[in-house]
């Protein structure tokens, strides 16, 4: 095994077959001037010798890599794997290979990955921003170079880069409205330790629903966390220690809602009678936890498909599919037993 | 936005700054012969003009892309995202970027991805085979070319490609032995519709434990499925329809075990008193489902780290870390309430 082994060239193939390098080259490109039998021998010999089609060099010439990059915050959710499956299905049909990188919600890592994808010349890029990302300067090189970039889920407003997302204000409004209709008045909102655009939208939806129902907003009912399952458990302890017990919890993701629900149950709280619980995302655990979790169903697969299709259309210079720069997908409130007090 | 916009070269930068292209080139490579202020101007101008370091061309020369590829069957499990996090942590430290592709457990897609990764010249490759893959010929091009390849989890025996996995025979033996110790005698084994090497190992572990406990193997207790959560639900119906009711279920993954457990509960079966249930993988849902699921903890993060480290060592021509070609990681039986009859 020798990494520095010499790269096989068309000259090596030509020497082996005792024909000209030009013939080898034409044969490999399936040129009509080369005899079928000769072509066959060229291809077989190239294969035996381990010849690589020299994609890199050929990419340099035609400036197409046929690779699409996707950058996501974290692969660790069924929601994100659904998105990637949707993307994969569209790109496979369009003959692109997908390469995936995760920023682990770290802005520095996101900058590095973006640079690597740029240098390795992806033909297009799909991005869901890291949780902490506040600007998108590290993607400007793509814009300048005319490489199509489509944001999804955690989007960034940009004239040349379409975004695909759901209406987070409305979805959070619907969850809160549902809890109020179930008779809840002291609704804890479990949100992110630092408000991203998505978290802020959901926060605003929550507040607006309270306002519309004449329930005063109470800052002491807001819990800021890192949104993991264990953070949900910690949130449960904060809730149990509140001087006046809340009657509902609305966490902005399912992992956190599930952790909170299980910990409240452990402490003898009846769900939903004592405290109703709702999450967001419709991750797999939402229908495993007991009682099953009320949540917002976010069509991950569809979001992936739509974002990938916009990208492919841009690569083919078809742009009429997007009339608006921001595409809002439908999301649905899924009411399950964790919040259903009125049956 | 014009995809065909001309690529910026060092000549463009040189013209703009009215210096020689050679100086620009040396400046960009941080050569000591170039004055610090000039370097600064060169770098700034290159940046403004959207110059790309021409990684591709430079990769062609030095034959290093600094990219490692990883091919997995499916990203859709917390186990797999743990593996990828482990890989990511080692590669980041070694200054490699990781690109991920999923075969969706489809051998044809795996062949395509392997080809794309080869043509795009990853420096090394990590592979967990698609469920259906029976030979590894499509990876021979890497071996021939001296590109290090390390298998993990679903490995393939190959003299030049190390594999990192757990002892699936032993782990399945331990699960079955535990169920027998809890008083179970009619243990259903839910396995894959077609036996991969991993599934076969677990099947053998199950059979060996029965044998060692003088329990005759009964083919009518074996259920062959596609191992999804819904397949687990279907398995539950098969179990409920068996003429003599089994007293335990051992499914070879958690998703399937959880689906089966929930469906059995819906039909009034007490878990673990009537039927004990055990899974495999220690996915997140195993500690969400009630009762919590007995399973095998597979250290995904560690497996990712170890596989990546072997790869990095090979890239650096350090090979003494692997004494054997197959590295067996420890796995642990996690006993939870779903199987605990004797308390």
Automatic annotation (TrEMBL), chains A, B:
Keywords: DNA-binding, Transcription, Transcription regulation. Residues 8-62 form the HTH lacI-type domain. PROSITE patterns: HTH_LACI_2. The keyword Cytoplasm does not apply. The keyword Transcription regulation applies. InterPro entries: HTH_LacI (IPR000843), LacI/GalR-like_sensor (IPR046335), Lambda_DNA-bd_dom_sf (IPR010982), Peripla_BP_I (IPR028082). SMART domains: HTH_LACI (SM00354). GO terms for molecular function: DNA-binding transcription factor activity; transcription cis-regulatory region binding. PANTHER family: HTH-TYPE TRANSCRIPTIONAL REGULATOR GALS, LACI-RELATED TRANSCRIPTIONAL REPRESSOR. This is LacI family transcriptional regulator. The lineage of its organism: Bacteria, Pseudomonadati, Bacteroidota, Sphingobacteriia, Sphingobacteriales.
């Amino acid at each position: 095994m020798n990494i520095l082994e010499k790269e096989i060239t068309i000259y090596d193939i030509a020497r082996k077959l005792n024909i000209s390098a030009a013939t080898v080259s034409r044969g490999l490109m399936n040129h009509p001037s080369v005899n079928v039998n000769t072509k066959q021998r060229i291809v077989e010999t190239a294969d035996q010798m381990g010849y690589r089609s020299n994609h890199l060099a050929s990419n340099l010439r035609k400036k197409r890599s046929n690779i699409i990059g996707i950058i996501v915050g974290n692969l660790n959710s069924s929601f994100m794997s659904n998105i990637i499956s949707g993307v994969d299905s569209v790109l496979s049909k369009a003959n692109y290979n997908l390469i995936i990188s995760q920023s682990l919600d770290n802005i520095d890592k996101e900058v590095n990955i973006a640079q690597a994808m740029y240098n390795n010349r992806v033909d297009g890029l799909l991005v869901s921003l890291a949780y902490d990302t506040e600007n998108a300067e590290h993607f400007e090189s793509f814009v300048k170079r005319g490489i199509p970039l489509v944001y999804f889920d955690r989007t960034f407003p940009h004239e040349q880069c379409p975004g695909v997302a759901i209406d987070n204000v409305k979805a959070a409004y619907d969850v809160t409205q549902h809890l109020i209709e179930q008779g809840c008045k002291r609704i804890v909102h479990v949100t992110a330790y630092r408000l991203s655009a998505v978290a802020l939208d959901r926060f605003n939806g929550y507040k607006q629903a309270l306002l519309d129902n004449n329930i005063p907003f109470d800052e002491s009912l807001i819990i800021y966390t890192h949104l993991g399952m264990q953070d949900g458990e910690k949130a449960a302890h904060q809730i149990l220690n509140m001087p006046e017990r809340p009657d509902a919890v609305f966490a902005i993701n399912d992992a956190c809602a599930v952790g909170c629900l299980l910990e409240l149950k452990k402490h003898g709280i009846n769900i939903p009678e004592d405290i109703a619980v709702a999450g967001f995302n419709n991750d797999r655990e939402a229908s495993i936890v007991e009682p099953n979790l009320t949540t917002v169903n976010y069509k991950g697969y569809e979001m992936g498909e739509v974002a990938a299709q916009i990208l492919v259309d841009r690569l083919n210079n078809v742009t009429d599919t997007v009339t608006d720069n921001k595409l809002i997908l439908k999301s649905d409130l899924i009411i399950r037993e964790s919040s259903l007090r009125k049956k």
